[in-house]
Hints:
Blueprint: E1 4-7, H1 19-37, E2 41-44, H2 59-67, E3 74-81, H3 89-102, E4 107-112, H4 117-122, H5 130-146, E5 153-154, E6 159-160, E7 177-180, H6 184-193, E8 196-198
Parallel strand pairs: 1-2, 2-3, 3-4, 4-7, 7-8
Antiparallel strand pairs: 5-6
Helix pairs in contact: 2-3, 3-5
Amino acid sequence: MQFGIFYEHQLPRPWNEGDEHRLFKQALDQVELADRLGIEYAWEVEHHFLEEYSHSSAPEVFLAACSQRTRHIRLGHGIVLMPPGYNHPARVAERIATLDLVSDGRVEWGTGESSARQELEGFNINYMDKRDMWMECVRETAKMLAADPYPGHQGKYFSMPHRNIVPKPVQKPHPPLWVACSNRDTIKLAARLGMGALTFAFVDPPRPSTGSTSTTPPSRTSVSPSARP
Length: 229
């Protein structure tokens, strides 16, 4: 079994001068301590406009700071929001590769769509299209990290010409891929695509349809970031 820590950078009101600064400095201290204690992973979310719940809108900056205060702990995006309204795929590729370089190859690349209307509508992202956006952008970003040069793309949700995306990551062809999973179907999708599953959800196994009247509660399982996919 492996262990990790996870950050949302929550900051409940009332807010006072210096609270955000203190929040980030304390989190950096905690990641440094976790590295010394042998904790294997530090995960950082990406959220926008979610006051109090998460003040983590630039996780790549926080993780880069962590990389310079640690030696062994793996640094996980939990997650990068992949719809191009949030992050253009080329910019994701550039940031992932750069973080992998400055951390000496310790990046875990978690991906996802977002589910909060406050975030999606803030970037004019259509809720009904977000899964297809995620699929297209993850596929092309992975190609950008691996291809030399990237041949270009004409897609439904973003397009760009032939370019060489630099720098390239330490881990080849790219850092380990994960997807945020909030239900059983997404966990199955992760399995089909060979990705790790990132989830807090407890998923009940299907109840047998035998008419049994047993009162024994079903077991509960979860899939969590443990080993590299």
